[in-house]
Amino acid sequence: MTHAIVVGSGIAGVTVALHAAASGCRVTLVTKDVLAHANTRYAQGGIAGVMFDDDSVEAHVRDTLLAGAGLADPEAVRVLVEEGPERIRDLVGLGVAFDRDADGTYVKGLEAAHSYPRILHSGGDATGTAIEHALVERLRESGVEVVEHAFLIDLVSWSGRVQGVDLLIGAPGSTPRRLVVEADAVVLATGGAGELYSHTTNPAVATGDGIAAAIRAGAVVQDLEFVQFHPTILAVGEAFLVSEAVRGEGAVLRDESGRRFALDAHPDGELAPRDVVARAIARQMEAQDGRPVLLDATGLRDSVEERRAFLAARFPTIDAAVRARGLDWATEQIPVVPAAHYLMGGVRTDLFGRTSVPGLYAVGEVARTGVHGANRLASNSLLEGAVFGARTGDVIDSDAVAGTWPDSPDTTMTRPVAREARAVDDLPAFSREALQDLMWRCAGLVRDAAGLTLAASVLSHWNSRRRTPQTESEFEDDNLLVVATAVVEAALARRGSVGAHFRSDAIADSESPDLPDRQEAFA
Question: What is the DSSP string of 23-45?
Fold first, then answer.
């Protein structure tokens, strides 16, 4: 019997596990934290899909390709959109209760860069939690072996093929143990790398472990320069994402004087593509000495009472978080800032999750399927996990039985290699905080050659002084260094601006915000 190991427990990983088990595989799912603690549970915006008669596959395909700024793979996008409705119906069958109107039809949600309100939500702004709960419940009934608190140290390879995983297992407070588990196939579903940045919407477990392990195994990676920054994160208390759906309902962005500045950047204003809105916010923050901008939802209903009731019903999770911070967004504007949110690039795969290394698959945010291009269309990420998770799970057993592996992805897209360090005086000692600050300043929302070259030098310096990690935290730091090096190298190689990758030195100076001197910040 084919044995498949799935690393990760979000929508992509659990979907792979369920489909692989249904196709006859013995499946072991290992997860870094507890089973339900994955990026999926934090998804507020919903899941996009062609579920209404007056929408169309062609419209969703067009919106996705436009958001991807010409760099999305049309074939992958068509797979995503055409198979998406069936995967959404699968989720309904598993018990996900998407919000419905009184007549029983799904509530339509509109988000940025969609030409049609095709976003489905559950519990208003708790879609990810609803999906994760339903999938975990089904997984527990499926016979899939689950190992929690299992950290992926590395992939195990023999004769050019991945044949298992090296794990560090141990709940907090216990003594961890190393365990090598052999398998016929390994599926990376480890999520992204939000912990690269000092401001992120991702949970603390998002340290790029799967991407780093794939790079060490020689897998092709692509598009790592495309990091999506969510425009609106609460600037009070712990980082908390305020869904784009709030702006879809009509909330607007204002500067300190009350002006709607987003219209200066794009005719669609607050509903322009995320990268445009995030940069507009960063530009405005620079103009007001780094202070947050304001999200204004006070115009969504005529009276305060109606507004309060609407916000609590439509966005219960956000409403609770706002109120917990002592704010009343029914009567006042709330402060928001951008934060790293989603990695469009990753381990390059074919349309069935296969990577360039035999025996290794990748799904979800860790993968580069080609559907997002240079900028992910809102609410396509949950859909990607469901669609490509199912496709991957369905082929693992037949791949193992066949004993062959398809041609590798285009090997011209090789993994980035760190550059030689240039002389920089008084380089800082490595710490995760120093790395996050470096990436935020030099490889964040706005980039240029000087900042990226400085980042490459600092990363090279830190890489040359790495010691063999011993603890889970040290392994995470090691992975963050590997991924940061690859992100910076990819950003240096792409000299033009496209999508989420914005080079201030590729446009007229008058169009880019003034940024603090990065050399001074790290000297």
Answer: TT-EEEEE-SS-TT-SGGGG--S
| Catalytic residue (choose from 41, 247, 274, 391) | 274
Buried b (16+ CB within 10 A) or exposed e, 416-451: bebbebeebeebbebebebbbbbbbbbbbbbbbeeb
Q: Is the dihedral of CA 507, 508, 510, 513 positive or negative?
A: positive
User: 35: pLDDT confidence band, cut at 50, 70 and 90?
Assistant: confident
* Cα(388)–Cα(372) distance, integer angstroms: 13
How do the residues of the chain divide into helix, strand and coil, expressed in percent and rounded to 5? 40, 15, 45
3-225+344-402 is classed CATH 1.10.3520.10: no
Q: What is the DSSP string of 169-210?
A: E--TTS--EEEEEE-SEEEE-----GGGSSSBSS-TT-S-HH
Q: What does pTM read for this prediction?
A: 0.89
Half-sphere exposure of 521 (CA within 13 A, CB side): 18
Q: Closest Cα to residue 367, out of 346, 392, 352?
A: 346
What does the pLDDT look like over 425-470, one tens digit per residue?
567 899 999 999 999 999 999 999 999 999 999 999 999 998 999 9
> For residue 414, what are its two tokens?
């090789």
**Domains of the chain: which residue ranges?**
3-225+344-402, 232-338, 432-522
Class of domain 232-338: alpha beta
Q: What is the pLDDT of residues 463-490, one digit of tens each?
A: 999 899 999 999 999 999 999 999 999 9
- Strands 252-254 and 293-296, by their bridges, are antiparallel
3-class SS at 317?
helix
Fold of 432-522: Methane Monooxygenase Hydroxylase; Chain G, domain 1 (1.20.58)
Distance CA 339, CA 192 (A): 14
pLDDT at residue 169 greater than cutoff 80: yes
Is 274 part of the annotated catalytic residue set?
A: yes
Q: Which amino acid is residue 499, in one-letter code? A: G
CA distance 220 to 490: 13
